[in-house]
Amino acid sequence: MAVGTCQTVNLRNYASPEAVVEDLAPSYPVFCVRPHEIQAVARRFIEGFSGDVLFAVKCNPGAHMLSILFEAGIRHFDTASLPEVALVSEMFPDVRADFMHPVKSRAAILAAHSIYGVTHFVVDHLTELEKIASIIPPGPDTVIVVRLAIYHKAAVYELSSKFGAPVDEAVTLVHHVLAKGYGYGLAFHVGSQCLDASGYAAGIDLVRRVLERLDSAPRCVDIGGGFPARYVNSQGADLDTYFATIANATQTLSLPDDCRLMCEPGRGLCADGESLITQVHLCKGDGLYLNDGMYGSFIEEKLGLKLPVRMVQARDFSSESREYTLYGPTCDSLDVFPGTVNLPADVAEGDWLEFGCIGAYGTACRTHFNGFFADTFVAVENDFGESI
Ligand SMILES: *Cc1c(COP(=O)(O)O)cnc(C)c1O
User: Fold this and answer.
1) What angle do CA 188, 39, 310 make, to 5 degrees?
2) In the chain, pLDDT over 90 holds for what percent of residues?
3) Is residue 280 predicted with pLDDT exceeding 90?
C-alpha cells in the first residue's frame, strides 16, 4: 500500500483509518488528522466573519493543527499563557498573539510585551489593570480589553462564574484604562459549545450598554469563542446562522472603521479535524477495555458530550448489535465512559474503534497518568465515517 506524506504538516498520510490499521496494527491510540476538514472550516470562518478570526490555542496547541490553520489563512491567535504566546510567535514570525486570559503573572505580562511584542491584554478587575500598569508604560499602542460577564443558557459550559465584569464595573474599568493612557477594547465569552446564536446577540447587547456610557470609541470588540461542534447529543445551528446573527447585532454598535472586530473560536474550528483510533484490549461481558480514556483524550465525554464512534472495518462484523460500557486503560475506576454505546455484538480483543470530533480539547487535555499518553498522529484523507 502506498503511504505518502501530508505536505502541510509532515505527517504520514493514509487514505482512511482502515488503511492506518492495516499498515500499523497499532496497539496504542492513533490520532487521525484531517487537514482538508480543518482548512474547510477555517475558510468558512474567515469568509463568514467580518473581522479577525483568532484561533484559541488552548483548544488544540498541536504543531500540525497550528500549521494547518496558518496555511488556511489564520493569522491571529488567542493565547492565554506565556508558553502559548511563545509557541505561536516562534512558529510563525508575522502572526499576532493577543493575551486573552484575565489573570496573568507579572513575568508573563513583561515577557509577552517586551519579548514577543504583544499589544492586547484582557482584564476583568482593577487589580489586574494595576498589575499591567506597573509593567507596561502608558501609550495608545497597548490595548486593554475589558471582559464582560455573560450568562447564556444555550452554552454547555459557562465561563462567567470565573471571569468577566458586570456592565457597571466594566464602565468603571474602561475609565481607569483610559486614565492610565492605554487604548481600550471590550470582550465577552458566551460560554463554550453555545447552541444558540442568540447568545452572541446577547453579548453584543452588553457591549452596546457599556459603549452607551462611554465617550470614546473602543479599539476592538471581541465576541469570543463558543461556536459549537457537532456531537452526537449536542448540535447547534449552522455556522452561517451564527455569522448572520453576529453581523446584524454588530451593526447596532456603530463602530468606527478602525475598530477591530474579533472572534476567538476554539472548538468550532478544530473539533472535526481529528479523530482517534483506539484498540480493544479486553472484552469482559458487556465491558470493553480500551487503550485511551478519561485521563487521556476523552475529557469531553466525562463532561457530558458524546463523541461519534464507529468500528474500523478491518474485518466483517455481525449485523446484530448490543450496548457496551467502555473503560479506559488506567487503574482508576473513574476511568469509565459515561453511558453505554451501541456496537456490533461480536466486538473482540484487538478490534479498533474510531472516535470522531476529538480535535477540540482531546489532545489538549491528555495526561500522562499511569504511563499512558496517546501521542501518535497520522493524516487521513477521507471524512469521518465515510464508507471505504
Ligand atoms: C476557551 C476560550 C476560547 C475558546 O472557546 P471555544 O468554546 O472552544 O470556542 C476563546 N476565548 C477565551 C478567552 C477562552 O477562554
Assistant:
1) 95
2) 92
3) yes
Q: Grid coordinates representing 192?
A: 463554550
| Cα distance between residue 12 and residue 377, in whole Å | 8
The x, y and z cell numbers of residue 69, run together, are 490553520
- Domain 35-270 of CATH type 3.20.20.10: yes
Domain 35-270 and domain 271-380 have a common topology: no
Residue range 177-186, pLDDT digits in tens: 999 999 999 9
Q: What is the DSSP letter of 246?
A: H
CATH hierarchy code of domain 271-380? 2.40.37.10
Q: How far is 376 from 333, CA to CA, in rounded Å?
A: 25
Provide the angle, in degrees to the nearest 10, between the axes of the packed helices 239-251 and 35-48: 20
Domain ranges of the chain: 35-270, 271-380
Q: What is the CA radius of gyration of the chain?
A: 22
Quote the ligand 1 centre to 97 CA distance (angstroms).
14
Which atom in ligand 1 lies closest to the alpha carbon of residue 267?
8
Residue 100 Cβ < 6 Å to ligand 1: yes
Which tens digits make up the pLDDT trace of 13-70?
A: 999 999 999 999 999 999 999 999 999 999 999 999 999 999 999 999 999 999 999 9
Contacts of residue 130, Cβ cutoff 8 Å, sequence gap at least 6: none
Ligand 1 contact, 58 CB (< 6 A): yes
* Ligand 1 atom at minimum distance from 159 CA: 15
Nearest to 221 by CA among 251, 266, 181: 251
Centre of ligand 1 to C-alpha 292, Å, is 25
| Ligand 1 pocket member 228 (CB < 6 A) | no
By DSSP bridging, strand 321-327 and strand 341-344 are antiparallel
Q: Is 112 in the pocket of ligand 1 (CB under 6 A)?
A: no
Distance 226 CA to ligand 1 centre (A): 6
The answer to whether 133 and 192 are in contact (CB under 8 A) is no
